[in-house]
Amino acid sequence: xxxxxxxPRYKITETGRQVTLMCHQTWSHSYMFWYRQDxxxxxxxxxxxxxxxITDKGEVPDGYVVSRSKTENFxxxxxxxxxxxxxxxxxxxxxxxxxxxxxxxxxxxxxxxVL
Amino acid sequence: ELKVEQNxxxxxxxxxxxxxxxxxxxxxxxxLYWYRQDPGKSLExxxxxxxxxxxxxxxxxxxxxxxxxxxxxxxxxxxxHDLSATYFCAVDYTGNQFxxxxxxxxxxxx
Lengths: 115, 110
Known about the structure:
heterodimer, A: Immunoglobulin-like, 7-stranded mixed beta sheet, 4-stranded antiparallel beta sheet, 0% helix, globular, B: 6-stranded mixed beta sheet, 5-stranded antiparallel beta sheet
């Protein structure tokens, strides 16, 4: 199916474990993003990528690692999960057809619980 | 510090009524986006506002942008139950980093 997908949709893990959340888009968008959504905070940017092999930190990057070896994939890894990383994680993508037109399209989200 | 503030945070309104959601932001930008999120779902793009004075309308929703006041509004006309959702504004400061407001949870009561 075309669009942006995330896996898993739900994940329960334990403190200290490594967890990887996957994001895949079929639009060949150059930009991809990872957000976390928490009550009272809206969405906060974790990391973003402008192209394959180009990534940069967002507002809340600590405790997370990203990579982007292929344009269509942008995995997010929690190296050692903590309870404060319990959240809903959204992946998004966008393209720069026009320089200022950067509408982002969001995936369905991954609900992560760290026990 | 970059801030995007929405108010109200919670809004309960009767069907048929009008209301406005406000989005204030702290740093100059002329690119603002509105999204809708249904419970347990992803974000759906509603409006893209790319210049001062921009106004977009879709059905019962109308969004506007005043870059000088650093203010965007989302106006709801004659609300219906299907509009119940959480609405987010997002400001693009740097060309690709969005800063989201905390959201407005709208409940339309029959």
